[in-house]
Structures are given as structure tokens and as C-alpha cells.
Design goal:
Largest interface: A-B, 57 and 57 residues
Distance between the termini of chain A: 43 Å
Number of domains of chain A: 2
CATH class of the largest domain in chain A: Alpha Beta
Order of helices and strands of chain A: HEHHEHEHHEHEHEHEEH
Number of helices of chain A: 10
Strand content of chain A: 15-25%
CATH topology of the largest domain in chain A: Rossmann fold
Oligomer: homodimer
Largest sheet of chain A: 6 strands, parallel
CATH superfamily of the largest domain in chain A: NAD(P)-binding Rossmann-like Domain
Chain lengths: 213, 213
DNA sequence: GGATGTGAAGTCGTTCACAGCT
DNA sequence: AGCTGTGAACGACTTCACATCC
């Protein structure tokens, strides 16, 4: 297979296949065809095969894919077979929600520290619910703690006005991945990655569809 | 201008233009060119013009766009000039976070009710922070309350196993828009709209980019 | 002169259709 | 016989380039 640039959408679908395969594995299914996986994930069967073809040959012609193997391969491709260490910057409503959002913990994404500028919040710990609480540090200790705790992904949940300067701190600390919840565009150097999660953009999208159908 | 199907990406960018124009309006800028708006939003200038062209002619040749007018037009197009009434279904970690997530309130998206099946949660109210608290009802009152409070968008924050049945309830109650946070695919009839917000998909995406760069 | 609006070109992603294996 | 893997066709979105208008 010749090398090609891999579409962003392919990566998102791999994540979806991964979820479906996990369910299939749990229910004891051993082999799956591209058609079965496709209908489960609501995509085209050729799309499934094409997506996988970017990364190699995983199936057996005439048979299908071995569920367990395919799941492992996809996780390896995505990099979701390792544990990722994350920090939350900005312990407001959304930030503290993420800290106690256990669904991350079930996965391979762990929040191992959090930061804020507001002293009242900085003294304590949060995440009352089960599991060990996540410490809150003053943001001026970000670089130090990020190195110490090997943080690889930063979740920016500050007000938009602070987002870029927090991003700069993360870059300086060598945190290469950023998940940006602050509705403002962030710029980072080559080699760093930002993904945005803007609730209002998604809601605007819904509003548009509801207004025009 | 002939009618064309409007790309999803165009709608997302309109939301972004909207945010930038709001900032410009606040800082007193009156006129903006497609090139200026484009660089602010980190897109191509032709893209800005093309996006707007789907909906009409909003600019003045040789001059640019009137900030205030363009902002109004975009909001009208998106349907974000009206107030949208929403409900949260599933008052767990994420659900209660959204209830107290004030950033929605600044916007035109209001959470006016919430629902759960777990009695302990159902008795009370949440959202301690400023603003009036949002009532929590038992999910079996969803249809009744949805009509009464004219709910138009439902945010599903239940475990994945419950997501489809909650969606069915929303459909039955005539709630046409769904924002689905439960990482599972949901099916709704024609005329209803679902947008997914899957944190693990986004994190998988980040993980992939970090692993392969 | 200068910026918009838009057909045409270019790029990217999806679907088809079938050759190639098992 | 059946399902994968993939070149080719198709369709969708983006960018270019320029005619159009203020």
C-alpha cells in the first residue's frame, strides 16, 4: 500500500470501530465482517475497509476480521493502548466537572493534576466522589508539576481571555497535546496539537439544523 | 445564486465568524474585509466569502462588511438570535456540571429543567452557584414537563446503555434536537437531529496525533 | 483602486465495483 | 462461495482567479 495522508475523519471512525469492537468482544463475538462492523457503526462497508487499508491488512479474505486482533491493532494505531496523563487548567464549573467525570478514568485517560490562579480554590483538593482526589496547584507551578507528573495533555477550561497564555505555559512545559474548551482560537508551534471542544459551536449547529428543517 | 446543499463545515465556521464579529463589535470596529475576518478566524478569505454566498450578498464591493449587520445576519442564519430552551437528562457528574456551567447562560442557550431516574437526586435541586437552581424531575415526567416548559433541545448525559431509550422519550415528547454525550450511536426519526459530543473520541484523536508526529 | 461574489480548477474524502485470496 | 483490499469513478469541499460593482 502506498503512503497517503490519513483523513481526520478516518481517525474519528477508528475510535468508533474501537468502541463497537469492545462491545462485540464482551458479548463473545470472535469474527466480524466489514459489512457487520459497518452497519453497527452506521457507515459504509467499503469505508471500513478503506479506513483500515491506510494502516495495513488486518482481515482474512472470505472470512472477515478477528475481533480481538482488530481491536488491538486499532488501539495501537490510535495510541489508545497506553495510559495518557492529563491536567486540567482552570478549576471553574467545567474544570471541576471534568475532574470528577469518572468516565475518563474507565478509559486510558487520567487526570493527574489541576491548576488555577484563584487562591481559594488552590488550597484544597476536589473530586469528592470515589477515587483519589486530584490536587489543585497554583498555575505558576504548572511547568514544575507538568514535568514531575509527566503530563502529556492539557485541558484548558479557563475563560477565553486566558486560554492563549495558558497554552503558552503548556507549550513551555513541553505538554504537546491540548484540549481547548475555551471558545477562542489558540495558536501553538509546530509539533504541538490543539483540539477544540466548543459547546456553543455545537449548539449553534443544532440551532441551525432545527431552524432549517 | 443557485441553491446548493450547505456544507456542515460552513455552519461551524459561521459560528466562529459570529464569535469574532462579536469581539470586533465590542472593540468598536465598524467595517471588516473578508481578508481581515479570515485571518482572525484562521481560514482562507475566499472561504469566508463563499460561506456567506450560500445565504446571500452581505458585503459592499470595494469596502467590506458592516460588522454589526453581518453579525445580525449570521445569527439569523444560524438561528442563534432566539433563545433555545434545553433540558439535561441524566444528572450524574457531567449532567450536573452542565447545569452549573454558566457559560451557557451568557449565551442564548438556557437549561430550564433536568431529569434523572435515581430518587435521591430527584428530590432536590442543584446548581448551588449564583442564578436560579434548575429543578430535577423524575424521568417519567419528561413528556409532561418538556411540553410545559417548551423544551427544544435535550442533552443526554446518561450512561450509554440508557441513551437510546432517553432519545426515544425525547422524540415522543417532540424535542427535536439532541446533544448526545453518551458514547453510543443514537437513532432518531426523520426531522429530528442528533449531535454527538464524545470526549473519548476527541481524546483518541489527540492520542493519535501525539503518537504519530 | 479595492474588495466582493462566483465559475472553474484543484484537492480531498467517499463509494463503487471487481480482482485477488482463503 | 465469500469477503477483503484497492484502483477508478464519483461527489463534496476548498482555493484560485478574475469579472463585477462600489
Amino acid at each position: 500500500m502506498k503512503y497517503q495522508k490519513i483523513p481526520e475523519a478516518t481517525i474519528r471512525r477508528l475510535s468508533r470501530y474501537s468502541r463497537c469492537l469492545e462491545e462485540m468482544e464482551e458479548s463473545g463475538e470472535e469474527v466480524v465482517s466489514s459489512a457487520q462492523l459497518a452497519s453497527r457503526c452506521m457507515v459504509n462497508a467499503a469505508q471500513v475497509r478503506k479506513d483500515l487499508a491506510y494502516f495495513g491488512e488486518f482481515g482474512i479474505r472470505g472470512v472477515g476480521y478477528h475481533v480481538k486482533n482488530l481491536l488491538n491493532d486499532i488501539k495501537r494505531i490510535l495510541g489508545s493502548n497506553k495510559e495518557w496523563r492529563m491536567a486540567v487548567i482552570g478549576v471553574g464549573n467545567l474544570g471541576s466537572a471534568l475532574l470528577s467525570y469518572k468516565d475518563f478514568l474507565k478509559q486510558n485517560y487520567k487526570i493527574v493534576a489541576s491548576f488555577d490562579i484563584d487562591p481559594p480554590k488552590v488550597i484544597g483538593r476536589v473530586s469528592e466522589k470515589l477515587g483519589k482526589p486530584v490536587e489543585i496547584f497554583h498555575v505558576n507551578r504548572l511547568k514544575e508539576i507538568a514535568k514531575e507528573r509527566k503530563i502529556e495533555i492539557g485541558l484548558i477550561t479557563t475563560p477565553p481571555s486566558e486560554a492563549q497564555s495558558v497554552a503558552d505555559l503548556l507549550v513551555e512545559a513541553g505538554v504537546r497535546g491540548i484540549l481547548n474548551f475555551a471558545p477562542t482560537q489558540i495558536v501553538v508551534p509546530e509539533g504541538f496539537v490543539v483540539k477544540d471542544v466548543f459547546f456553543t459551536t455545537i449548539l449553534d449547529n443544532l440551532a441551525y439544523l432545527l431552524s432549517n428543517n
